């Protein structure tokens, strides 16, 4: 999953990015409302964490512009203000949730996971089953023939991209886009490294290589 943080308090933004990266998310950070609107408008993000008081364009206007353009990306708004009017205004512009500073990092992570779960499952179970493989995308746990398999955060994120589209071909660029952040300039073959590790842990038969197109997760 790839997240965008639009927050002009640089220390807070980088702290949140570091923590969310450790949770297994790819995280991009911008500090200006106009840049945030441009990035979010590209449509590559699974969730946007959006401050209200921003230079260039405030969070209310960024949110309203995204919704007016038809973008349905979940938006979690942050503000130093505290009052029902501010919350109502934020939600009226199309935000999905609202968090007042100062907030607990644990609460923020819980809100992020809830919003992603709400969007990703659309009312269905967060548990995906492919053959003997069972992946709980909410609890981030993986089982193979009822035996729990330990994965790193990045390994799980790569597997998640495959399991939510089980049976479909997922390109290497799609995986890079959602698992590694915008600033990643390393070898794109890093995806192959993680797929190889997943095959070693889960069985080579589960992840098929579709030459020139990407990878497909199937029961085998």
Let me know the average pLDDT. Answer: 85
Secondary-structure element series: EHEHEHEHEHEEEEHEHHEE
Structure annotation, total helices = 8
Rg measurement, Å: 18 Å
Q: Which sheet architecture does the biggest sheet show?
A: 5 strands, parallel
* Residue share in β-strands: 15-25%
Helix percent reads 40-55%
Number of strands: 12
The end-to-end span amounts to 26 Å
pLDDT < 50 runs, ≥5 residues: none
- Side-by-side strand order of the widest sheet: 2-1-3-4-5
Return the structural class: alpha/beta
Envelope shape: elongated
Pfam family, one: Trans_reg_C
Keywords: DNA-binding, Phosphoprotein, Transcription, Transcription regulation, Two-component regulatory system
Protein name: DNA-binding response regulator
GO molecular function, one term: phosphorelay response regulator activity
Overall description:
The structure is a single chain. By secondary structure, the protein is an alpha/beta fold. Helices cover 40% and strands 22% of the residues. It is built from 8 helices and 12 strands. The strands form 3 sheets. It has a 5-stranded parallel β-sheet, with helices on both faces. A 4-stranded antiparallel β-sheet has the order 6-7-8-9, with helices on one face. A 3-stranded antiparallel β-sheet has the order 10-12-11. Helix 3 links the parallel strand 3 and strand 4. The longest helix has 17 residues. The radius of gyration is 18 Å and the shape is elongated. The mean pLDDT is 85. Pfam families: Response_reg, Trans_reg_C. One of its GO terms (cellular component) is protein-DNA complex. GO terms for molecular function: phosphorelay response regulator activity; transcription cis-regulatory region binding. One of its GO terms (biological process) is regulation of DNA-templated transcription.
């Amino acid at each position: 999953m790839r997240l965008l943080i639009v927050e002009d308090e640089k220390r807070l933004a980088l702290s949140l990015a570091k923590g969310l990266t450790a949770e297994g998310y790819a995280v991009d950070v911008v500090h200006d409302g106009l840049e945030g609107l441009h990035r979010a408008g590209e449509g590559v993000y699974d969730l946007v964490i959006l401050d209200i008081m921003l230079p260039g364009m405030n969070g209310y206007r960024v949110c309203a512009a995204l919704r007016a353009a038809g973008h349905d990306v979940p938006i979690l708004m942050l503000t130093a203000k505290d009052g029902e009017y501010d919350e109502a205004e934020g939600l009226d512009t199309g935000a999905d949730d609202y968090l007042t500073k100062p907030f607990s990092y644990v609460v923020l992570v819980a809100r992020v996971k809830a919003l992603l779960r709400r969007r990703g499952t659309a009312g269905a179970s967060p548990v995906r089953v492919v053959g003997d493989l069972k992946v709980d995308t909410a609890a981030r746990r993986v089982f193979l023939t009822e035996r729990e398999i330990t994965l790193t955060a990045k390994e799980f994120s790569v597997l998640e991209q495959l399991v939510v589209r089980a049976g479909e071909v997922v390109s290497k660029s799609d995986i890079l886009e959602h698992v590694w952040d915008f600033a990643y300039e390393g070898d794109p073959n890093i995806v192959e490294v993680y797929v190889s590790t997943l095959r070693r842990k889960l069985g080579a038969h589960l992840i098929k290589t579709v030459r020139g197109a990407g990878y497909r997760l199937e029961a085998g």
